[in-house]
Design a protein that fits this description.
- By secondary structure, this protein is mainly alpha-helical.
- The protein has one domain.
- It is built from four helices and no strands.
- It is elongated, with a radius of gyration of 13 Å.
- It starts with about 20 loop residues before the first helix and ends with a helix.
- About 20% of the residues are buried.
- The chain binds zinc ion.
- Zinc ion (ZN) binds next to helix 1.
């Protein structure tokens, strides 16, 4: 998997509902609500989100299988809806 379970700033594996790992959140001052993120981080997150979306489409089309990633399976079952960053955007 490329983006679904990865920190958007480094290769660290994280839960699918997070965008950055704990280390990057502290290092880049992103340890706060998405609405308070700096513009560059919001843009990066938007790019990362698009990557995740296309990966989910590959799952849906059968190109990738859930066995490749337990995290993606959890994502597909709606965990993304509980993403606090998503809620903050609306
Ligand atoms: Zn990171």
């Amino acid at each position: 998997m490329e983006a679904l379970c990865r920190c958007m700033l480094c290769p660290t594996h994280i839960a699918a509902r997070f965008w950055v790992c704990e280390k990057c959140a502290k290092a880049y001052d992103l340890d706060k609500p998405f609405a308070d993120w700096p513009a560059w981080a919001k843009q990066l997150k938007a790019d990362h989100q698009a990557m995740r979306r296309s990966e989910r489409q590959r799952f849906d089309s059968g190109e990738l299988t859930f066995s490749d990633s337990p995290e993606a399976e959890r994502l597909a079952y709606g965990e993304v809806n509980s993403d606090p960053f998503h809620n903050g955007e609306r």
